[in-house]
Amino acid sequence: MAEEDLKQWRDAGHVARRALEGIKNEITVGKSWDEVIDSAERFIRRHGGKAAFPVTISVNEMAAHYTTNSELTKPEGMDEEMVFEKGDLVKLDIGAHIKGALADNALSFEVGNGGKHTEQIKAAKEARDAAIEKMHPGTPWHVVGSAAQQVALDSGFEPIRNLCGHQMERWNLHTGLSIPMYSCGENNPSFKGEVEIGGVYAVEPFNTNGKSGMIENVSPSGSSNILRVTGNVKIRKALSKGKLKPLGATMARYIEERYNTLPFAERWAFPLLEKPFPEEEEESRRRKWKALVKKLTSIRFLEVYEALRDIDGGTVGQFEHTVYVTEGGPEILTVE
């Protein structure tokens, strides 16, 4: 990687890490999830970056991929308010980018620091570090996964086996290459290959006190409130084939220009409807937004994500760093 390019990746890493460390202290009893998310996203902008994806807050059995929406709708099955309570195990996941150079990092934090989740938090952090230590050029991916799993098991927790780390490229948060965070076995067809020089990887082992070590989607479709332009559909072509009407094409263009193919939040994009419909009531604009998303997902211009939770209802721990692999081994980019 050219030195100028690498500087942007490093700068993104610094912004992402400063945001993570700066915002974690705002996770206090009685504070709303939305307040913390908004504060984190403003922090990224103030420090010279842009959000690589919506800041996510995942509490207790929730594992990943939840951000608030513009209506502050609670996740399905949640009775209590979306405010932090003493003893909550919170995963805060923050990403930043600078001109598409990405950084992704996360930590686990116990609200009130009562010591209820100390061992699980420690195990998740040590699993991340153990995996990173193995990330030298030529190391098979199953060796990296085994290192993360061993820490979890030794600490009395299960590694989550259907969540993985991922390779990143400029403007592409998930390149398609997944990194096992458990002992997948050397012949697993999903994790062939090895650590490569010049690769940028998000290393993020999850653990749980649930029995199965598996996560599931939270209903309904799109429960994360996160969307992404797939990059597989050309707006002009969809318009010429009658798959989109002119207004739908204009809205699709607005979205693509703002977010490229990086994940974005419903609460970021919904206000775009104020421009073509300034006189509409909010309820009417919401109906139009839902119809637009339905249309754009049906033609595969957009994809939506589900929030994820432990299948057994166990609490989930996670830590994450972004790593650049050099000839001499791993360089952690998400450092202050």
Structure class: alpha+beta
Report the radius of gyration as a whole number of Å. 20 Å
CATH topology of the largest domain: Creatine Amidinohydrolase
The arrangement of helices and strands along the chain is: HHEEEEEHHEEEEEEEHHEHHEEEEE
Name of the top-level CATH class of the largest domain: Alpha Beta
Helix content: 25-40%
Number of helical segments with 4 or more residues: 8
* Separation of the first and last Cα atoms: 21 Å
CATH-defined superfamily of the largest domain: Creatinase/methionine aminopeptidase superfamily
How would the global form be characterised? globular
Low-pLDDT sequence parts: none
Into how many domains do the coordinates divide? 2
> How much is the average pLDDT?
97
List how many beta strands DSSP finds.
Answer: 18
